[in-house]
Design a protein that fits this description.
Helix content: 10-25%
Structural class: alpha+beta
Number of domains: 1
Radius of gyration: 17 Å
Largest sheet: 7 strands, antiparallel
Number of helices: 2
């Protein structure tokens, strides 16, 4: 099911932002993987479409999947797409090294690290040091919190911070809460944490 949301412009709390845009469309879906031990990961895939103020008449999309694993590692796969369809194609742009995610009203900020090439062309795989904050951002996305995302450009010092709201459906919100609860129990059990 597609969810397109009209968003109100709010003040950017991101000190590194030199440009600001509000998503023209945003959509998130719940993701889960399982193995023989139960739930292996919980996450969200989000697609954020915006008009890039650095590129005249240019629509961009940020496609990212934020995932928490039973090994208590938080990871992200992300890419920037040219959302101006040419012959029905949406084209991935050059791979970037970092992504910033923020939930400004709760003062939670994440910066990716350990970037490597993804198997998907022009996409990046990376991790976050703070898995607890990654869980909080995942929950905030699912509940429709006002989020910010930024992917710094390699080519220049200018970057655009994009504000978006992309909540899960009510059943997906409940599924994520259950998934994270089960994942925490699995982490405790496998690491002998009481």
């Amino acid at each position: 099911m597609k969810k397109l949301l009209l968003l109100a412009i709010l003040t950017c709390n991101c000190a590194t932002a030199q440009n600001f845009s509000v998503a023209t469309a945003a959509h998130s879906d719940f993701q889960i993987t399982r193995d023989e031990g139960g739930q292996k990961s919980c996450g969200a895939r989000s697609m954020i479409v915006y008009n890039d103020p650095l590129q005249k008449n240019s629509a961009r999309a940020i496609d990212f999947s934020l995932v928490i694993y039973s090994s208590f590692i938080s990871a992200i796969k992300f890419g920037v797409l040219d959302a101006n369809e040419i012959n029905g194609q949406v084209t991935p742009l050059k791979r970037q090294d970092k992504i910033y995610l923020a939930f400004p009203t709760q003062n939670i900020n994440l910066i990716s690290e350990n970037a490597i090439d993804s198997e998907s062309e022009n996409y990046t795989l990376a991790t976050f040091k703070d898995t607890v904050s990654a869980m909080r951002i995942l929950d905030a996305i699912s509940m429709g919190g006002t989020m910010q995302v930024q992917i710094p450009r390699k080519a220049d010092s200018m970057s655009t911070t994009v504000q978006f709201v992309a909540p899960f459906s009510i059943p997906e919100q409940q599924a994520l809460k259950e998934c994270l609860s089960n994942l925490i129990e699995r982490i405790k059990k496998e690491n002998n944490i009481k």
